[in-house]
Amino acid sequence: MPDLSVLDHVVLGYSPIIDRQRAVVATRLTLFPARPDAAPDVAALQQALLQVWPAPEGAGELQLTLRPLQPKPGAAPAPAGVTTPVSLNIAGEALLGAVMHAPPLPHLMIEVPAFMATEPAQAQALQALHAAGAVLLIKGRPLAPVAPEVLACFSHAVVEATEERRSTALPGAGVRQVSTVQAGVRTAAEAEAAFQRGAVAVLGWPFDDPLPAAAARSKVATDIQVVMELIQGVDREAPVSQLEGVLKRDPTLAFRLLRYLNSPAFGLSAEVTSFGHAIMMLGYGRLKRWLALLLASSSKGVNARPLMFAAVRRGLLMEELGRAQSDAELRGEMFICGVFSLLDKLLQQPFADLLKSVPVPERVRQTLLADEPAGGPFGPYLELVRAIERESLFDIRESTERLLLSPGEINRALLAALRQAQQLDG
Questions:
Q1: Beta bridge pairs of residue 14
Q2: pLDDT-derived band of residue 166, with 50, 70 and 90 as boundaries?
Q3: Phi-psi region of 404 (alpha: psi -120 to 50; beta: other; left: phi over 0)
């Protein structure tokens, strides 16, 4: 096992990189050093990240992993089990400098601030990194021209919308030759506008879209109704034959559920072959959490893909944050709370309406219906997760202090959750 003590000296946040098809093709991991002048052990940090994003074994897989934003026309999708890459956004010059001068891991992308790309003193280090196989992204619009040999080191430019709009005022900056990933996206409309401007991907969680008015809400899809009915049946511990009859109405759902239950993240010692077998092995209580995951991942809307990606990770992270508790039931409820925290966005209905047909534990209900962001029994944990998704150092620290947790505990929980999520995705 790697030495994870390095995680005590950084603060982590993360967000998705989303392509035109609204698929999450990479994860951005933001690293804040605990102190601005601190430079944690880079080798130990790389080993910790390798537990979540292992290096691909074959050269073909490596190419798929490194170039997800620019697929070749007609190229097949990445094979199952190939993890999406990670882009490291290092918010500290000392730590970034240490990473840049360490032997690179080619499948870990590195974001480099634009001002560094214009500094002659950095040119040699950037070219050496590129020659060693590192994938570099330039972050921001440079205010001065970038030397052609340095610009050639970058595969993409990560640009805020405000920088994109003023880019025409930067003649000669040269970044127009590099494909753009627009950062700061918070709505589906902002994502679409970025793609219309030519971005190959967007960076951020599209969480801020308002719910439609009651008259504009679409009817709940049949497969979602099936999952809701299953959750209700499991909640009242209905006979197995009755529940299997419900599931037979949608064989695709049955396949997806069994795929979840047999994933490495679930860790069962024997393969689950049927819904009845799952109840026998797990019991009604444990099965309910995986039905929650199935419900949150059942939306058909293309813009829901990043939300489903987030819901899975929220549930797993909430559960990991509660792992210090000896109460398995509490951890299960925290998992359901995290998964369901985006259910209103996924199903386009307010929680007050949804929870009339989806039974949840009382502590989860109180949290989801709370008037304040950190309200309800699990509210402080959910607010910490939101801070991590916002990559907000101040908010992460504030939530950490409120929960009496250490940065290392939270970082370990986050990486464990991201590792499990990748196992489910594969």
A1: 29
A2: very low
A3: left
Helix, strand and coil content of the chain, in percent to the nearest 5, comes to 50, 10, 35
Q: How far apart are CA 299 and CA 347, in angstroms?
A: 7
Q: Is residue 209 part of a domain?
A: no
225: exposed, middle or buried (Cβ count in 10 Å: 0-12, 13-18, 19+):
middle
Find the CATH number of the domain harbouring 420: 1.10.3210.10
Residues 6+ apart with CB under 8 A from 220: 228, 347, 349
Please report which confidence band the pLDDT of residue 12 belongs to, taking 50, 70 and 90 as the band edges. Answer: very high
Beta strands in 121-260 (DSSP E): 136-139, 154-160, 179-183, 201-203
Q: What is the DSSP letter of 214?
A: G
Measured CA distances, 295 to 168, 312, 355, 356 (Å): 45, 11, 13, 15
Average pLDDT over residues 35-50: 84
208 belongs to a structural domain: no
Would you call 263 exposed, middle or buried from its count of C-beta atoms within 10 A (0-12, 13-18, 19+)?
middle
**Of the candidates 289, 290, 260, the residue with the CA atom closest to the CA atom of residue 272:** 260
Overall average pLDDT of the 2-18 stretch: 90
Per-residue pLDDT at 266:
67
Mark whether 246 and 169 lie in a shared domain. no
Task: Assess whether pLDDT exceeds 50 at residue 403.
Answer: yes
Handedness of CA 82, 54, 207, 204 (dihedral sign): negative
- Looking at residues 318-343, what average pLDDT do you find? 90
